[in-house]
Amino acid sequence: MSRNFTPEELLTRWESRREIQNVMGKVSQSYIMMEEAQIYDRFWSKREDVCLGVNEGWYAGAAAVQGYYDAMGEKIRLASDLIAKAFPEKLSGKTTEELYGVGQLGVKPIDTFVIEIAEDGETAKGIWSLHGTYADMTPSGPVSNWDWGYWCVDFVCEDGAWKIWHMQDLKDIESPTGGDWAAEPLSFPEEPDFAALKDFRFPEPNVKATLRERYYVGRPFTETPPLPEPYETFADTFSYGM
């Protein structure tokens, strides 16, 4: 950093770092608890210029980002209904709330983080490695997938709390477990009980761009996303947003 901080300022910065770690830990836990539909309201800034980047482009703006997480909840609800119908002997008598997320699992452990708090204390940046797996509900039933990549986040301090402002959820590996990462994805026969999932359409990014390519044989060398570096104000650093 370019200046010395008082003990009080250092304590505030330490508390900010801890809160940011906890925010992203809670986001990770939200997937395990099948609470993806609540991530936007709980952890994102209420600014209109929020954005979420995935390999294929950007969900730009508050409505698009919220729509992304809402769609996760819609798919979980649809899959839960189909599982309940497929296994009535096990699940009959359960309420809609009790059935939500049944038979589904998403684990997104994050580690090797680098966090930088701006000198002015108004923004922060962080990057995490992600080594996860999830059971995706498909027309073939549940398929277990590897999910490895990065979470890259700009934060803004909003009403005294750290919130996600810009985020990139980038994937290097997304392929069925038990298969070759570099091979064509495994295909499975369709199961009539889950055929309705063919009609589900996840919203596409409203700004198309190639932010990262998943691993394949012959993929050119791909740098890791840039690490945060010390900075004074957000104008002095790069953005993980658009």
Total beta strands: 8
Query: Which residues sit in consecutive blocks of at least 5 with pLDDT less than 50?
Result: none
If helices are DSSP runs of H or I spanning 4 or more residues, what is the number of helices? 5
Q: SS-based structural class? A: alpha+beta
Helix content: 25-40%
SSE run: HHEEHHHEEEEEE
Cα distance, first to last residue?
Answer: 26 Å
User: How is the main sheet built?
Assistant: 8 strands, mixed
The count of domains is 1
User: What's the average pLDDT?
Assistant: 93
CATH class: Alpha Beta
Tell me about this structure.
The chain has 5 helices and 8 strands, in the order ααββαααββββββ. It has helices spanning 7-32, 39-43, 62-86, 88-91, 96-99, and strands at 51-54, 57-60, 105-107, 110-117, 123-138, 141-158, 161-176, 207-208. Strands 1, 2, 3, 4, 5, 6, 7 and 8 form an 8-stranded mixed β-sheet that branches. It is globular and about 65 Å long.
Short description:
The protein is an alpha+beta fold and 242 residues long. The protein is 26% helix and 29% strand.
